[in-house]
Amino acid sequence: MPVNPVFPDIDRSVSVEQISEISDRLSTMMAELREQMLAPRPRKKSPVFGSSQVASLCGIDRSRLNYLAGKEDSGLPPGEFHGNGRSRSFTLEETQVWIRKEAGITARPAEADGQILITANFKGGSTKTTTTMSLAQGLTLRGRKVLVVDLDPQASLTELCGLYAESDVAEDDTVMPYIYKDQPDLRYAIKPTYWANLHMIPASPALFSAEFVIPSYIVSNPKLRFWEILLNGLAPLRREYDYIVIDTAPSLSYLTINALMASNAMIMPLVPESLDFISSVQFWKLFSDLTQSFMQLDPGKRFDFISVLLSKVDYGSSSSSPVVRAWAQRAYGDWLLPMEIPASSVVGSEALEFATVYDIDSWEGSKKTLSRIRDPFDSFVNIIDDRVARKWSRT
Ligand SMILES: Nc1ncnc2c1ncn2[C@@H]1O[C@H](COP(=O)(O)OP(=O)(O)O)[C@@H](O)[C@H]1O
Ligand SMILES: [Mg+2]
Asked: What residue spans define the domains of the chain?
């Protein structure tokens, strides 16, 4: 066969030594890039809420809000006048005070544990992290106190919480000291965030070590209930938070197994595209193979509910959503939630890469574009909180 003259036959073999050289060169380059990435970037701020938003979060009308805000002894923050002097604005903290006093949401009984939720999917880009953060923020807008736990070494949730994983998070700030048994539980790792009543346990690439440390414990103690390590570390925190929401890496790691087994309920965000659907089917297969191997030891494990949330739904005419939605209905039945999160420029836009729909101030951009995605998120949060509140009221 004639040799193609456009592609000269050159030796492309690579030695291990050459890979080391490349790696050295990349490290130098990374050091430079890091300088750029570490340039100060604006700290995240929580949004300001207008009167109508606060009224709607409390389920009261604006005139009642104005009456209460002006009343000296209502014990409610009056907010600040802005614009024409008729409408008020409130900080997130103030808004949460209003919600706790006026919204009539049933509080968690003091003797009930906080609910542990996990967003699960082995497909990257399935909006797991976005869903985790939005759910956590949304729950604080129902007066709940929430802890988010980032177990993904890629630390996207940590970044959404306003920390820069690269510079702000050391291994000692993550769950690792507890995994190494240097700490009795996970209390040490809790950090407040820019968002009132939303605390976090951050992640960093150091979490990869857990995948070596946990198996080494199993080698020295084959009877170890290794899937309970995380739950034991969270146990002392459950009275302090109404919710603990865990975000994991899109893979079946030891940390993910621990997160799944620690959870009381599971939410699977699913982008209605065929590959995503297939990947979700594989998730259940892997999960059931795995649990069958050790569940004989833990036969009492139950989830309060498992819900599938169609997310980043494309309503364009050439979209595969209608087909995959039908598959999901058939496959998941009443696990499938009634609301769907549309694909929205509000979330996808570059400027908001480190933000969710709840981070946006009420009067920015078009109201309609915002409420198209915010309304389904609100109903998603409400349906989850409602189920959990019912469970609390039965205790
Ligand atoms: N409703 C949405 N519309 C458009 N883009 C979205 C939406 N939800 C999430 N995204 C974007 O999709 C990408 C993947 O989301 P992410 O939450 O990081 O997924 P995962 O954690 O499952 O990998 C992110 O860039 C995110 O900003
Ligand atoms: Mg993620």
From this structure: 49-102, 115-394
Residue 42 is predicted with a pLDDT of 67
Instruction: Write down the pLDDT at residue 384.
Output: 98
Q: Please give the torsion angle defined by the CA atoms of residues 19, 21, 25 and 27, in that order, rounded to the nearest 10 degrees.
A: 70
- Measured from the Cα of 124, ligand 1's closest atom is 23
Share of the chain above pLDDT 70, in %: 93
For the beta carbon of residue 190, count every other beta carbon within 10 angstroms.
16
Hey, which of 98-107, 284-293, 354-363 has the most confident mean pLDDT? 98-107
Measured from CB, residues less than 6 Å from any atom of ligand 1 are 124-130, 156, 250, 311-312, 341, 343-344, 347-348, 373
Average pLDDT of the segment spanning 267-279: 96
Ligand 1 atom nearest to CA at 345: 4
| pLDDT band, very low/low/confident/very high, at 376 (cuts 50, 70, 90) | very high
Domain 115-394: top CATH class:
alpha beta
State which of 150, 312, 321 you would mutate to test the pocket of ligand 1, scoring each by most atoms of that ligand within 8 A of its C-beta. 312
Q: How far is the CA of 362 from the centre of ligand 2 (A)?
A: 26
Nearest atom of ligand 1 to the alpha carbon of 313: 1
How many alpha carbons fall within 13 Å on the CB side of residue 281?
11
Digit-coded pLDDT (tens) for 202-249: 999 999 999 999 999 999 998 899 999 999 999 999 999 999 999 999
